[in-house]
Amino acid sequence: MRDTKESRLLLVLLIAIAFALITVDIRGGEESPVDGARQAAAAVFGPVENGVASAVDPVGNAIGAIRDSGERHDRISVLERENAALKARLGSDDRNRSRIRQLDSMLKKAANGQYGIKGAEVIAIGAAQGFSWTVTIDAGSVDGIQRDMTVLNGDGLVGRVTTVGPTTSTVLLANDPDFTVGTRMERTDELGFATGQGDQPLSVQLLNGKAKVRKGDRLVTFGSQADKPFVPGVPVGEVVRVDPSGGALTRNVFVRPYAAFSKLDIVGVVVQAPRTDPRDAVLPPRPKPTPTPTVTVTVTPSADGGVRAQTGAPEQPDREQDRDREQQRDQDQDQDPGGQTPRADSTAAATGRDDE
User: Fold this and answer.
1) pTM of this prediction?
2) For the chain, which domains are there?
3) CA-CA 20 to 30 A from 332: which of 121, 203, 295, 309?
4) What is the pLDDT of residue 352?
5) Would you state the pLDDT for residue 218?
6) Reduced to 3 states, what is the DSSP secondary structure of residue 266?
7) Are 158 and 170 in contact (CB under 8 A)?
8) How far apart are CA 23 and CA 241, in angstroms?
9) Which residues contact 124 (CB under 8 A, 6 or more apart)?
10) For 96-190, where are the E strands, in sequence order?
């Protein structure tokens, strides 16, 4: 269609008619005079619309499926993240239970020793601070932590505080070669000095070269002047090896520490020392020894002059033993009316012949 004056006039006329019909339809409401024309148009063009919709529905469904697949993928991703968070929470629950056990054990030790402690968590190891065996805890000067305070956990001695910041502190572990602590032996009260040896047992130099030490003896901290850096009575470890004295003035023993320095988590800093030395009250109870069964062998003379051995069950009740002895005595009296028990001949018993 050419762009002429007539075509422009026709376009303007059609637009004006359209606006007029729209105005009449809006003002008429439900009784619009064009409602009949609208219904007639719907009856004519409705089937056409249905046919076109049927033809294009597969395309629309495909597009919707693609869109829905994206939504399902996003939903799966959300579920996977939720499952990962749930697993992490379950794992943290296991860790929390372990930490509760550690805290409970540490609080019991603090109560036994009358230590006032500030709980803390190990948040870093000392690799960044050099080659020393150190850890960083999340408690500092704002928590009342000071330099040269004793650090322990639910097992025993951990170390001492060496550096204090506002919210963190550095702890030198007891297995560090630069770490030394005075010790006292549980059974004999022998004094000595324990020094760290890394991942090896602690080396303890006893002041008494003639001290009697045996494997399994236990040591606690002796304590320092003004209770710094060490308070008394903190469990240190058990003797695992004793070197011969060799006549020296001192004696060396090796002690396995109670604390596992590679698995530290919850620790306590002693911020208040006990009023009196707890001595051995903080040491864990010794395991009860397993009783060793014993077998009783009884040798009694037999009626034919030989020797008979009887093996008794371990720890037989006295009543059963008395009954067995009475039965044996009755048998001997029946065989020897005179009441005399025949004497066993060791030669006959050994060769199986009687002397005539």
Assistant:
1) 0.57
2) 37-284 (2.40.10.350)
3) 295
4) 41
5) 95
6) strand
7) no
8) 108
9) 135, 136
10) 116-125, 134-137, 150-152, 157-164, 169-173, 180-185
